[in-house]
Amino acid sequence: MLFTKESDYAIRIVRALKNEEKLTIKDICEKESLPEAFAYKIIKKLSKNGIVDIKRGANGGYNLRKKLDMLTLYDIVVSTEPDFAVMDCINNFCGRNGHSGRCRVHKELVSIQKEVESLLKRKTLKDILESESK
Q: Do 10 and 45 touch, CB atoms closer than 8 A?
């Protein structure tokens, strides 16, 4: 369950917009090899979560609303997958959990979930993308 194609595409959209310029959906999709129809759907989610700004009209396009030093991979992933989890039972009831609490496997998965979230929050997009261009 970890990362979906939608999360991957969302990260790539942000990377395309990293230079703070306004781009069209076509420009973004060409830069990052994304299907336009899917990119529109993802950009709407990124906009709803305050990451991307949408400008409509003849001079319209898309640009980042937040600075790269204020964004992490975690921010992008949860904007497209609000219930992001390493396994379904993290967010849903697990039939193996009894009345005495969560099973040991569930407890371990929760620990892993926290580690993954911590790793995704560890660096900003500015840190990641600056090291990419070196």
A: yes
| Stronger pLDDT, 116 or 106, i.e. the higher one | 116
The DSSP string of the chain is ----HHHHHHHHHHHHTTTS--B-HHHHHHHHT--HHHHHHHHHHHHHTTSEEEE-STT-EEEESS-GGG-BHHHHHHHH-TT--SSGGGTS--TT-BTTB--HHHHHHHHHHHHHHHHHHSSBHHHHHHHHT-
Q: What is the CA radius of gyration of the chain?
A: 17
pLDDT at 1 over 60: no
Which distant-in-sequence residues (6+ apart) come within 8 Å of 60 by Cβ?
24, 54
Q: Which residues, 6+ apart, have CB-to-CB distance to 93 below 8 Å?
A: none
Q: Distances from the Cα of 113 to the Cαs of 30, 48, 63, 64, 118, in angstroms?
A: 34, 25, 31, 28, 9
Mean pLDDT of the chain: 86
Q: How far apart are CA 60 and CA 54, in angstroms?
A: 7
Tokens of 23: 């781009």
